[in-house]
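Sanity check

After download, print the first record. It should look like this:
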Amino acid sequence: MSILPRGSSGAAAYQAAVSVVLPGGTIREAVDAFVCAAEALGIERPSEAELFDFCRQVADFTATLFPGEIAVAIKNDPEASDDLYFVFRVAVNGNLDDLMARSREWHLATRETARRWSDLFCLSFDVR
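Expected C-alpha cells:
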C-alpha cells in the first residue's frame, strides 16, 4: 500500500493508487490517501470527516449488495489529473440481469448518500 506524504509533488499524487482490502478498519487509510492526493493535486473535495462518513456508508451498502470480497482503491484518470475517485471492486458471480440490478441499486444509493460528491465513487466487478 502506498500513502502519499503531505507535501508530495503533483506528479507523485497523480500516480497515487492505493489498494486496501475491506473490512478491517481500512476506510481511514483510503480516506487519508485520497485527502493527501487531492491536496497535492488541488482537487476540491468534501471535508475529511464527510469523506470518511461517505466511504463508510458506501462500504456498508456495497457489502450488503455484493457479499464477499471487496477492495477499495484510489484511482485517477490519466487524461484528467483532477479526476480522483474511490473504486469499490467487488467479486461477483451470477447472471447479468441480477448484477445489473444490484449495480443500479448501488449507484442510486451512492447518489443518495454522497449527493454532490457521488462522482467520487465507482463500482468495478471482478467477475468469477
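If your output differs, re-run the checksum step. Summary of this record's structure: The chain has four helices and four strands.
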